[in-house]
């Protein structure tokens, strides 16, 4: 081999070695990042959960939220009706007391 080819091969070898080191560093960093990420995953969330499963669970949660909101509205209406009834009962009791005093 001539000197120029040998020099080119040495440079190529050095470039490939540099790329290998960079790739190895990236693999190590990625593994560390993945490990940190997995440590912070929500409790009860399996690593094998799919996007579809998460979307289905999210849809179910939205449905429960709508149902709870409806229930809250119904309960608020009942509480308002109870307060109105108490007020009306108090007014009637006052009217009865006035009528008994007049008699």
Automatic annotation (TrEMBL):
The name this protein goes by in its record: Exonuclease, dsDNA, ATP-dependent
Entry keyword Coiled coil: yes
Segments of skewed composition (Polar residues): 63-76
Residues in coiled coil: 2-33
Keywords: Coiled coil, Exonuclease, Hydrolase, Nuclease
Ranges for region Disordered: 63-87
Gene Ontology molecular functions: exonuclease activity
Protein's organism: Escherichia coli
Keyword Nuclease in annotation: yes
